[in-house]
Amino acid sequence: MNVLIVYAHPEPKSFNAALRDLAKSTLEAKGHVVRISDLYAQDFEARVTRGAFRSAKDPDMLNIIGEQAHAWKTDGFAAEIKAEIDAIAWADFVIVQCPIWWFGPPAIVKGWMDRVFVPGFTYGRGKWFETGGLAGKRAMLSVTVDASLAAYSARGRYGDLDAMLWPANLSLRFVGFDVLKPFCAPKVSESPEIRRHSLEAYAARLAAIEGETPLFFHAASDYGDDDLLKPGLKPAASSPRDA
Amino acid sequence: MNVLIVYAHPEPKSFNAALRDLAKSTLEAKGHVVRISDLYAQDFEARVTRGAFRSAKDPDMLNIIGEQAHAWKTDGFAAEIKAEIDAIAWADFVIVQCPIWWFGPPAIVKGWMDRVFVPGFTYGRGKWFETGGLAGKRAMLSVTVDASLAAYSARGRYGDLDAMLWPANLSLRFVGFDVLKPFCAPKVSESPEIRRHSLEAYAARLAAIEGETPLFFHAASDYGDDDLLKPGLKPAASSPRDA
Q: B128 to chain A: which residues are within 8 Å by CB?
């Protein structure tokens, strides 16, 4: 399969870079083709501005969804956005490799979603969730934290990690991805032994990644016109509601 | 009191700007002093790079926390970061006014936290949560969404809004803020009537904001050395665990 690793760390010698390189070599050894979007090295802009678009549908009022839809129809995205769209279109599996800063992905990763998950390409005209534009592809967050896994558990200092990553995972599902459970490397500053253990755990997981069952999300049609889960249905365990 | 509104929308005619202006006039009418950080207008950088620092503690390896701590000690932050630090230091109450994009604040808001919530100023040397550097100040997220409030409820399409905003609220608490429940203006694209209703609700809330009880968060000392809530304590209702 074609694998895109979206990598976001400003330091080339970071442990995130080691995880990126391990994923690349492990997946290539299994015969997959791997490409990397190195957001910092590409100087990828995080903020949604007029710079995302080569022309303006409405120069007097920046309606972001409106300009994104217009740019999708007219091949009007800035080159760095078009390159990411093309990379996602090419990929069967997208890994987002980043540290957790302030209990979520860094701004540059949020900006990648804000600017690249555009209507037409990823959703719209009734296509979302299981019918989203990226349906049939898989995605996974691979993150690092500087605390224990216990700290990111339901009774931990910071709460359950999957609940914390719900916004990012829900975004991935909204556009159609089958979303795999996040991988998390804990205590990245503590010792080489812990880091080596994380590398081993990640390699083992990646070796069997094609057989993994994605997280459960409700189908869009499980919700009524009132935006509520239809009576009798239980909220998904992958949401923070049951965490 | 001194109120800082951190405002993040690229369109000056956006409804977020209307909410910002309403907060300013409402709070000023009550005798408060209001300043605004207009992140887009200030061209505030969202990404953590060497550009945040006027010198390098370690030019060979970018350890972000290490460089931030060094810059705090040496007055070594770039001007735009120092300005935000000074504004927060001045404020008794910080409102973050932004849209929800992809189920969270825009990248520019995440970048504001990534770059401005620095050790020394906001945490460190055993100071965090109730003893954090910003203890005694209050903060609140004020957000807009383009769906119904039902969609952002526990049984809604996107799940409970407070659970979704847990990462941002936990970040605000980590650095010491007393965190007020977020304000949310729904269906911002639907009709002038809905927007007017939101403005009225926001004005009413702000008029009584000084008397509000903050969200409950556990004290740092409620957790053991194992990073887990001590036996017998119940997870906070303001965390997604009970949402």
A: none
Please report residues of B whose CB lies closer than 8 A to that of A156: 223, 227-229
Give the span between the Cα atoms of B14 and B198, in whole angstroms: 14
Residues in CB range of A179: below 8 A, 6 or more apart:
A138, A139, A140, A169, A172, A173, A214, A215, A217, A238
Q: Compute the Cα dihedral for B149, B113, A96, A205 and give only its sign.
A: negative
Chain B residues near residue A124 by CB distance under 8 angstroms:
none
CA angle, residues A22, A28, A31, in degrees to nearest 5: 150
Amino acid present at B177: F
Closest of A89, A161, A142, A80 to residue A120, by C-alpha: A89
What does the pLDDT read at residue A237? 59
Do B227 and A114 make contact, defined as CB atoms within 8 angstroms?
A: no
Chain A residues whose CB is inside 8 A of the B171 CB are 102-103
Q: Which residues pair with A38 in a beta bridge?
A: A7
Of the partner residues A63, A148, A241, the one whose CB lies closest to the CB of residue B243: A241
CA dist., res. B163 & res. B203, Å (int): 24
Question: Average pLDDT, stretch A143-156?
Answer: 96
Provide CB contacts within 8 A for A180, sequence distance 6+. Answer: A138, A139, A140, A209, A212, A214, A215
Q: What is the ipTM of this complex?
A: 0.96
Which runs of consecutive H residues, i.e. helices, occur in A60-125? 64-74, 79-90, 107-116
- Check the CA dihedral B69-B75-B78-B81 and report its sign: positive
Coil vs helix vs strand at B182:
strand
Residues 186-215 of B with CB under 8 A from A: none
Contact A101 B107 (CB under 8 A): no
Rama region for A183: left / alpha / beta (φ>0; ψ in -120 to 50; rest)? beta
Q: What is the three-class DSSP state of A123?
A: strand
Q: How many CB atoms lie within 10 A of CB B35?
A: 13
Which of B163, B171, B229 is closest, CB to CB, to A166? B163
Tell me how many residue pairs between chain A and chain B have CB atoms under 8 A apart: 190
Consecutive sets of 10 residues in chain B, 243 residues long: mean pLDDT of each? Answer: 98 98 98 98 98 96 97 98 98 98 98 98 96 98 97 94 95 98 97 98 97 95 96 75 43
pTM: 0.97
Residue A243 clears pLDDT 50, i.e. is over it: no
Between helix A107-116 and helix B107-116 the angle, nearest 10°, is 170
